[in-house]
């Protein structure tokens, strides 16, 4: 039988340790701003990499952005995010026509390629891309004699040497660097240390590597081998793609946040506020910064024993702390760890600990999101999930309620910390205080955690409302930009076309 007093003691301890009152959120957002300054001051000056991107002319055409042309023509984008990739073609019609037609195709990467070399992977991508190009209909027009151009979104930290090339500096979101070998692939040794479920469940808790090799060169070579005449015109990170895509439709977009498997943010910064930049001044005087905010950490972050052990046992201990508190990759796993403690110390779910509950990453973030959103009076969905996913049968309503409470605490903390991060950016941009003209500020957000977990967005907005002065909050728009990054990459390819 459940020892309820013990279970509630664990719950209230969790609640206390995960608490994010306004004061705490303010401390976190101040710390974020401080780290942003440090990361901009010098290379390696902060946990935040604050990578400069060479995109100084994001769409749309606004004078301060000095874009002198309206994007027009046929462009492609490729978004490589891990276990699948997405290709898009878009016919742009300039200021009037905007996006005339857009087609997309999503392709899963076969498991044997995920464990293979980068060469095989790029070969596969190039072949799929060639098929996609071959299926181009009459609505798409490429002027005679022109090469097709593509924007490549590579959603892992890439330090950009120049706009269209880069070398991967680190894999995150549960991926990590193994050695300096060239190749994208699961590391078999590491994988076997885990329970091997990762590939079959499609969870991306796996090791990948691609280090020091220029991904644009790899892709270009593979396309050449396939006889595909295509030029990589832009290499962008997904946050930057989202910023560009969001801004194409709404000129007030000044930052983008990804809340998916991992989390990251990009924003527009004044070049004069970037001491570590000693190159030419972009025309606009502005530059987009890819923060890599997943690696943010601060003594003010509310950490629990569950977070500490999750981190210690992770593939990248001591790294990506903010991401481990916030992103879809980890929320389900944190909840599992709490429930495991309740099972072991308070006999929640019976006298023996359910074996599945002991398995890392058994509970996914979509699972906890579904349980959390269960509105039935007997929490039927929670009961079914516990049974289907963890093989825990015959749960009583009280146990189900306990599970929902835990899901709520972890999700709420995540969303509120993400909000504090956003306020950190607004502060850095001077948009956290009221101004006479009440400028509108839009933050473009994408990622399945935000898209599919409705309550996440509610918690996030709730926290923004608490932290910001009322009149400022009224000017802030958190805007879902679904697949903004695909369109954004194509737009950036267009604005960096060799033909203009
Ligand atoms: P990526 O961040 O790699 O580009 P996505 O944006 O598709 O990928 O995000 C995938 C993540 O979104 C998964 O880790 C998952 O945890 C989370 N996710 C997907 N569906 C849901 C859902 N219904 N509720 C909560 N989280 C979800």
TrEMBL record:
Residues 11-181, 210-248 form the Hexokinase N-terminal domain. GO terms for cellular component: cytosol; mitochondrion. Pathway: Carbohydrate metabolism; hexose metabolism; Carbohydrate degradation; glycolysis; D-glyceraldehyde 3-phosphate and glycerone phosphate from D-glucose: step 1/4. It comes from the Eukaryota. Residues 255-494 form the Hexokinase C-terminal domain. It holds the Pfam family Hexokinase_1. GO terms for biological process: glucose metabolic process; glycolytic process; intracellular glucose homeostasis. Gene3D superfamilies: 3.30.420.40, 3.40.367.20. InterPro entries: ATPase_NBD (IPR043129), Hexokinase (IPR001312), Hexokinase_C (IPR022673), Hexokinase_N (IPR022672). It catalyses: a D-hexose + ATP = a D-hexose 6-phosphate + ADP + H(+); D-fructose + ATP = D-fructose 6-phosphate + ADP + H(+). GO terms for molecular function: ATP binding; D-glucose binding; fructokinase activity; glucokinase activity. Keywords: ATP-binding, Glycolysis, Kinase, Nucleotide-binding, Transferase. SUPFAM superfamilies: Actin-like ATPase domain. Its EC number is 2.7.1.-. Belongs to the hexokinase family. This is Phosphotransferase.
